[in-house]
Amino acid sequence: xxxxxxxxxxxxxxxxxxxxxxxxxxxxxxxxxxxxxxxxxxxxxxxxxxxxxxxxxxxxxxxxxxxxxxxxxxxxxxxxxxxxxxxxxxxxxxxxxxxxxxxxxxxxxxxxxxxxxxxxxxxxxxxxx
Length: 129
Fold this sequence. Notes:
The protein is of the alpha+beta class. It has helices at 3-13, 39-52, 115-121; strands at 23-30, 35-37, 54-66, 69-79, 87-98, 104-111. A 6-stranded mixed beta sheet has the order 2-1-6-5-4-3, covered by helices on one side.
């Protein structure tokens, strides 16, 4: 299993057809909005993104592995389903920790902006193309 290639492919398709078997059953997830444990909860979060976010796209800028840690640098973009469909963009990075079997046991996202910055983006009226 080439974890880097699987992750590259997942980022390209995000949030559709994600590869969940690369995660441990009790995977720990944390970002500025969520913190939980478990693959089922992770799958529910991805389903929420698929259902609620419009035109969702994840741009992967860099991926690198150092021992059992994989770092990905990315930008997540979508339109929120409000009448003016504001374009939202969050750039950040993820640190994914692998267990000895090569499964992801920890997925922590960091943002280059604050939660308030993301909220403010909802009040713009410009359309993203």
